[in-house]
Amino acid sequence: MEQGTPYLLASSAACQGQGGGDLTLELGSLCFSQMILLDLVNLLLTAIYISSLLIAACKREFRAVRAGDLPFPCAVASPCCALLGIACVCLGLGAWGSSPHGALLFFLRGFVWVSLSVSLVVRPTRFSGAVAMAWWAVDAVLITANSLEKIATGGNLGVLDVLSWAVGFLLLLSAIRVCRSLAAGDGGGAESEPLLAAGGGERRAAFGEAGFFSRLTFTWMDSLLRLGYSKPLGLGDIPPLDADDAAAEACRKFLCEWHRRRRESHKTSNLVLRVLAECHKKELLLTALYTLLRTLSFAASPVMLYCFVSYSDRQERERDLGTGAALVAGLLGMKLVESLSQRHWFFGSRRLGMRMRSALMAAVFEKQLRLSSEGRGRHSSGEIANYIAVDAYRLGEFPYWLHLAWSMLVQLVLAIALLFWIVGAGALPALAPMAICGVLNVPFARMLQQYQSRFMQAQDERQRATAEVLHSMKIVKLQSWEDKFRATVQRLRDAEVRWLGETQLKKAYGSALYWVSPTVISAVVLAGTAAVQSAPLDAGVVFTVLATMRVVSEPMRMLPEVMSVMIQVKVSLDRIGKFLTEDEFQDDAVDRTPASDKSLDVHNGIFSWEPSKGTATLKDINITATRGQKIAVCGPVGAGKSSLLCATLGEIPRMSGSVAVSGSLAYVSQTSWIQSGTVRDNILFGRPMRSSEYERALKCCALDKDMENFPHGDLTEIGQRGLNMSGGQKQRIQLARAVYNDADVYLLDDPFSAVDAHTAATLFNDCVMAALEDKTVILVTHQVEFLSKVDRILVMEKGEITQEGTYEELLQFGTAFEQLVNAHQDSKTTLYSNAAKEGAMIQYQQPMLQQQGSEAEISTGNLPSVQLTQEEERELGGAGLKTYKDYVSVSKGWFLLVLIVLAQCVFVALQYLATYWLAATIQSHRFSVGIVVGVYAVMTTASCLFAYVRSLVAAHFGLKASREFFSGFMDSVFRAPMLFFDSTPTGRIMTRV
């Protein structure tokens, strides 16, 4: 009976003795090697798979794939595997009498085939599915390799060998099909849940729902990439973030750890770094593992090259196919580990950096909202913006550079160790050029950092000037100052380009140093090896040395930059740490109590904007307000009226006394605050829409007529900083926001200053006295005519409440208040007398406008019937050749482009010629070592010179193009009409400047 191999071995005849006795399992025999290589692998995978099934059964997750969901290759391969298993068991029963050991092997392989059949149907968990797919792929590769080896060595394939090969092909198809199904999101027949729940539920994070294999190979991105290939992606197409990646969660973890450490210790040295490390220590260790794997696999490349060259130098009869296959498998596995570990290192570092950046940005923003008055004096708004835009972003790159720093040192040590392993003492002279190149990199890095710093300063100056011009473009065009400010911006741009040019020239020098360093070091190593004869200079040694130089050159090139980045990170950590440790508002500055009849109570309050100096801003403040009471605060400019409202809010540090507020607060500042968006967005301010209250707020703030005249009603877009709204409209929108908020206590800081008298009277009567009738209102105002209607008046002077009472009481007994009223009456008399003198002149000119007052603040309806801010245009499809042609044409750099291409071609040609020269001369032994190394050094040095020329010309080409593009862009900006600036946000222009 012919006994074909039931599973991945040569035919059974080759594994039996001459007499057909027991299997020959001597050390070094073909059967023993194959059993160790093949059977143990399958036994291990079988054990792992069965263990995963047992764990799933204990967790009551044991479910089979539904028949309708089973992929076609799995449906075909499963019964085939079962039939092969039955065949192996039958062969084992037949061989039991003559060869018990062979029968046991048949039984074992039959069990493996049956397990494979089960794995094609039963995959209850993601882990078991990943193990099953790996098992199928490994079996397919091993079956194919074994069959090809038999054919190459002239062996015979048994029946089961051929059947196993065919089933192995089905297993490979099944692995590919299930993998693609998992990437597509249907789970490949396994139990899975859609990312979008039925009925339009909440979308789930693609990364959070991805399995082990999908995360390993990044196939969880395939669905998004396919969607992007089929149509332009929008924000709604992007999967939501994983819960741990959300900015709110990252900030919560950071602030919890920050406050805990602040309570435990008052040491602030490196506090931000320690908090970040504690919050993300698991992620840091995981990315460190990926970095170590990448470093080890990359440093092992010269060893693999040495093994390949040594294998190729053997005689034909000494070459073992198994050794060659093992080398190929080792190289494939090493490169696979290097690629995957590097990708996961990059992805993990960027993801971790995103969490750190989000946490710091949110923490800085939250801190800015709670910053004390003295803290605000020490940190300007521009500095705070830099903490978010520059320092937090720089710390977002920190995890990548942190792992790069220590991995470069490890890589350099491994490379030096490899050199000593390859050439022995001949590597000693190479330490000198390594040290020299490293020392040369230090001043180069410092010089580059200085130039980069000056370039950034010049860029900041130019951007600051450009932003100021763009913000004041209406005045610039009104005065016809375009040429003057255009010249100012161009002068700052010239200074910026000068430093940019210096930076690019130094980078060109750095590129030459990067290519020269391995050339010099390799030449020294080869010369030293030849001098001390520590190793034979054969092909294996020479090419291994050159490959090791690639491992050496990366740390030598990156270490200076890593040092520079680490210094910048240290500065950013100190800046953010100093800001986060600034004093905040006193949490107990205002005692908040539930809503009651006593709305506000300030007792013996002393407040100061600068408590460290001991100077009081407000002194002896005593205020008591009941529910529904209207209190007016008046006094000369600088008397402390706005500070009084800030003290009620708790924004001024309280030196003594007490402040108690009952219920919620609403504050209307003297300077209106408007965000970009629609009128409705500015009024609702994130609160849900309640139609009746919304209409009431519009009407009492005299905005109903404006809504009728706006082209889109309350959906009309407000331009940047409210530029398409009058001052009165912005103030009324702000007041309507406060009314809609429905607070218990209202603090109004001179809300009528931006409107005319008629509108002010409407707002006072309809809003303050009617809509807020049941609310407590503290009104700061200069309109004396409204004071007679309030319940109580506070007169302030030099930070103190000098008088208090009703209107009649203060007129009768209050000297300061009487002077204030008389001054107001005198100004009105002067105004009316001037108007009477000019009346005769006006009637001879043009008729006076009939509508004054509130209607002067209302839009006349001649706004364009489109939204003010236009949507930003998106370019779809590929860039095409026209973009590159325009880039070259604008800069008139065709000659420079040709020169760059020629330099690059010569550089590549010399690199290949140098390598070919070594390969040819080392094998032939026709030249001395000195000539070989010398010619190689000359060729590579010449190639480095051409690399320097290429970088130099490319820098000049890029600078020339940058000048031309910037000049044309600024010409277009300064010549644009005001409608362009009204419809284009300044930030959109600045991102292109």
Automatic annotation (TrEMBL):
<dbReference type="GO" id="GO:0140359">
    <property type="term" value="F:ABC-type transporter activity"/>
</dbReference>
<keyword id="KW-0812">Transmembrane</keyword>
<keyword id="KW-1133">Transmembrane helix</keyword>
<feature type="transmembrane region" description="Helical">
    <location>
        <begin position="129"/>
        <end position="148"/>
    </location>
</feature>
<keyword id="KW-0547">Nucleotide-binding</keyword>
<keyword id="KW-0067">ATP-binding</keyword>
<protein>
    <recommendedName>
        <fullName>ABC transporter C family member 8</fullName>
    </recommendedName>
</protein>
<comment type="similarity">
    <text>Belongs to the ABC transporter superfamily. ABCC family. Conjugate transporter (TC 3.A.1.208) subfamily.</text>
</comment>
<feature type="transmembrane region" description="Helical">
    <location>
        <begin position="102"/>
        <end position="122"/>
    </location>
</feature>
<dbReference type="InterPro" id="IPR017871">
    <property type="entry name" value="ABC_transporter-like_CS"/>
</dbReference>
<feature type="transmembrane region" description="Helical">
    <location>
        <begin position="512"/>
        <end position="531"/>
    </location>
</feature>
<keyword id="KW-0472">Membrane</keyword>
<feature type="transmembrane region" description="Helical">
    <location>
        <begin position="894"/>
        <end position="915"/>
    </location>
</feature>
<dbReference type="InterPro" id="IPR027417">
    <property type="entry name" value="P-loop_NTPase"/>
</dbReference>
<feature type="transmembrane region" description="Helical">
    <location>
        <begin position="927"/>
        <end position="949"/>
    </location>
</feature>
<dbReference type="Pfam" id="PF00005">
    <property type="entry name" value="ABC_tran"/>
</dbReference>
<keyword id="KW-0813">Transport</keyword>
<dbReference type="GO" id="GO:0016887">
    <property type="term" value="F:ATP hydrolysis activity"/>
</dbReference>
<feature type="transmembrane region" description="Helical">
    <location>
        <begin position="154"/>
        <end position="173"/>
    </location>
</feature>
<dbReference type="Pfam" id="PF00664">
    <property type="entry name" value="ABC_membrane"/>
</dbReference>
<dbReference type="GO" id="GO:0016020">
    <property type="term" value="C:membrane"/>
</dbReference>
<dbReference type="InterPro" id="IPR036640">
    <property type="entry name" value="ABC1_TM_sf"/>
</dbReference>
<feature type="transmembrane region" description="Helical">
    <location>
        <begin position="35"/>
        <end position="58"/>
    </location>
</feature>
<dbReference type="InterPro" id="IPR050173">
    <property type="entry name" value="ABC_transporter_C-like"/>
</dbReference>
<dbReference type="InterPro" id="IPR011527">
    <property type="entry name" value="ABC1_TM_dom"/>
</dbReference>
<feature type="domain" description="ABC transmembrane type-1">
    <location>
        <begin position="894"/>
        <end position="993"/>
    </location>
</feature>
<dbReference type="InterPro" id="IPR003593">
    <property type="entry name" value="AAA+_ATPase"/>
</dbReference>
<feature type="transmembrane region" description="Helical">
    <location>
        <begin position="430"/>
        <end position="448"/>
    </location>
</feature>
<dbReference type="InterPro" id="IPR003439">
    <property type="entry name" value="ABC_transporter-like_ATP-bd"/>
</dbReference>
<feature type="transmembrane region" description="Helical">
    <location>
        <begin position="404"/>
        <end position="424"/>
    </location>
</feature>
<feature type="transmembrane region" description="Helical">
    <location>
        <begin position="70"/>
        <end position="96"/>
    </location>
</feature>
<feature type="domain" description="ABC transporter">
    <location>
        <begin position="600"/>
        <end position="823"/>
    </location>
</feature>
<dbReference type="GO" id="GO:0005524">
    <property type="term" value="F:ATP binding"/>
</dbReference>
<dbReference type="InterPro" id="IPR044746">
    <property type="entry name" value="ABCC_6TM_D1"/>
</dbReference>
<feature type="domain" description="ABC transmembrane type-1">
    <location>
        <begin position="285"/>
        <end position="568"/>
    </location>
</feature>
